[in-house]
Design goal:
The protein is mainly alpha-helical and 123 residues long. The chain has one domain. It is built from six helices and no strands. The radius of gyration is 17 Å and the shape is globular. The protein starts with a helix and ends with a helix.
Length: 123
Amino acid sequence: MLIAILFFVGILMGAFGSILMKVGASQIGHYEIGSIAQLIGYLYKLLTNFPAMSGMALYFLAGVVWSYLLTKLDISIVQPILALTYVITPIMAIFFLNEHVPAARWVGIATIVVGVFIVARTT
């Protein structure tokens, strides 16, 4: 049961991290990096952007969860289940970012769900 909860929490942290990174990137806006000075400027904007930094923190915490799960299960199980982040993120993007997800993407997302189901049945 703990393993299932950790998968759920890790998937949600990864998905929320993605949404926050997108919000932060939108706040930073289009940015060209053609020199060291521009790179430093971008890094400053990134590191001082609360949503972007929060997203990175969630990615880090999700990584801690995945690392723990890898101590309990084979990577051939953990990594495919991690792919459910790619299912949850577009759903969140619809609600939080008002993004439109075309039908072809839903076909790909459904393929991921089927694949995770197949992998999970092998445990």
